[in-house]
Amino acid sequence: MQRSGLFALVIGGLLLSPLAMAQQAAPDATPAATPAAAPQAPAEDPNEVICRAGEPILGSRFPGPRQCRTRKEWDQIKRDSQDALFHQQMQRACNAGTNC
Question: Virtual CA dihedral for 81, 85, 90, 95, nearest 10 degrees?
Answer without folding.
Answer: 120
